[in-house]
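Database export, one record per block. Field names are fixed; values are copied verbatim from the stored entry.
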Amino acid sequence: MAYEYIDKLGVGASTCEKLRSLGVATPHALLSKLEFSPEDSVKFLGRVEFEQVVRELKGQGAAEADYGELPPFRPSLGARFAEASPASLHERDQRNAISAEIAALRKSGDCTSETQQRLQNLEQSMRDSLKASSSR
């Protein structure tokens, strides 16, 4: 790995060696690692060295801006989904309404024959809707 940026920090050889042992290749990555857990970083380097390294790394940050923007993300693998049609959105909304009504009837605890018949009809309606949408 390229650790040249560590040598340019202006810290002692022992501090440079400690920083190299972290295995971080860029100034921004090292700064991120140190600032993620400042208490542990102070224990690792010492308060004065930690503050000096952070100050120097923040000064070196402009050099990484020269790398420019990342290219746009273009996934090469995976499924592509078509936009949902208005008809499928309507069917989904109907299924959600049926599901909500089924849940409300079950929660009500009403055991009358009318309620049980309504529940069976709704469940059959849900099954029919799911079969129709899966056959497309």
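Remark 1: The chain has two domains: 4-67, 86-134.
Remark 2: Residues 4-67 form one domain.
End of record.
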